[in-house]
Design brief:
2 domains; single chain; MetI-like fold
């Protein structure tokens, strides 16, 4: 079926109209950024970030926040992997269609709520600090990993487990020795990937009081301490790069092997 030659220009015009309508509806005034001393103020604000605070006291505080962020992400990911695997078994249809429907509904609900919303709820339930951040990461990541684990289970060949069951093995033994060995590389890869994401998110959850580097950054920005905030941002970048490198090495060593 041939497309009309006017379809392309019409789509472009509609997109431009949508952009213009968005500016009008939101009342954005980009011209204000260029008026008066706005540019000078923005340049001064940026220049204060260019001089990070590297004093020993502040670096010690950053180190404690980085360890807290790392612990939150690691523990949250571990709890999520355990819960996700437990929910993946019924979600993959191993226990019948009623359990499959309930498990998939629960997994959808867990991952439908963003980490920041979970963190806000957990702060109310568990109080300020890393406990709330760990629980928030665990709940959201359980939904993500549970869905990925369930799909991996559905795509895993059933022949090895069936052979073990025909040989007299029980359901648990057949799963552990027939299905799980083929599944472990995928589980590790998914878990490591989510750990990378959780490091980034753990650095942000502090904005709602969930501890870690994010909470330290929020305090510095609230007090207009640009130099201290710049140091925290650099620490976040270093932590993310370190975890990305470690995760890539672990996947290459364990998963591909």
């Amino acid at each position: 079926m041939s497309r009309s030659p006017l379809a392309g220009p019409v789509i472009v015009l509609l997109a431009l109209a949508a952009v213009v309508a968005s500016f009008v509806y939101l009342g954005l005034d980009l011209g204000a950024l260029l008026e008066g001393d706005s540019l000078q103020q923005m340049a001064g604000y940026a220049s204060r970030f260019a001089q990070p605070d590297l004093s020993p006291t502040h670096l010690r505080t950053i180190g404690q926040g980085a360890l807290e962020t790392l612990a939150m992400s690691a523990l949250g990911t571990l709890l999520a992997a355990i819960l996700g695997l437990a929910l993946a078994l019924p979600a993959a249809g191993r226990w019948g269609w009623p359990a499959r429907a309930v498990a998939r509904l629960l997994l959808n609900a867990l991952r439908a709520v963003p980490e920041l919303v979970w963190a806000a709820l957990m702060v109310l339930a568990a109080g300020l600090g890393p406990n709330a951040g760990t629980l928030a990461l665990a709940l959201h990541t359980s939904g993500v990993l549970g869905r990925l684990f369930a799909e991996a289970l559905e795509n895993t060949p059933a022949a090895p487990a069936e052979a073990l069951r025909l040989a007299g093995s029980g359901q648990i033994a057949a799963f552990c020795y027939g299905t799980l060995p083929n599944l472990v590389p995928q589980l590790i890869a998914y878990t490591l990937y989510r750990w990378e994401n959780n490091i980034r998110m753990a650095s942000v959850l502090g904005f709602v009081g969930a501890g870690g580097l994010g909470q330290l950054l929020y305090v510095n920005l609230s007090l207009f301490q640009e130099a201290q905030a710049a140091s925290v941002i650099l620490a976040m970048l270093a932590l993310v790069l370190a975890v990305d490198t470690l995760s890539a090495w672990a996947r290459q060593r364990w998963v591909r092997a």
